[in-house]
Specification:
With about 90 residues, the protein is α/β, with parallel strands linked by helices. It is about 45% helix and about 20% strand. The longest helix is centred in the C-terminal third of the chain and has 15 residues. The two termini are about 25 Å apart.
Length: about 90
């Protein structure tokens, strides 16, 4: 799935949810893109927070949920904006 598709899905789903829900956008590298998406959600009247965490690292994921609880108390929707690229051996 492309980043444009991920963005579209996040914005579409967030627009269909109740105004009281909190949307967490997890990102690994692109803080600017994640913050931009969060800003768009906030502009639509929803709560959104972008938090950095590498989904492949247990400690990062644990810290992600601690940060969610600290900032919001809970998460209603969590988007992991990860793109995994396969490693292909070239001969």
């Amino acid at each position: 799935m492309s980043r444009a598709q991920i963005r579209s899905n996040i914005l579409r789903l967030s627009a269909s949810r109740q105004r009281g829900c909190t949307i967490i956008i997890n990102y690994g590298i692109s803080s600017a893109e994640a913050e931009e998406i969060a800003d768009q959600i906030i502009a639509g009247g929803r709560r959104a927070i972008a938090i950095r965490a590498n989904a492949l690292k247990h400690e990062d994921v644990t810290n992600l949920f601690h940060e969610i609880r600290y900032q919001t108390g809970n998460a209603d929707i969590l988007f992991n904006n990860a793109v995994i690229n396969p490693i292909i051996e070239v001969n």
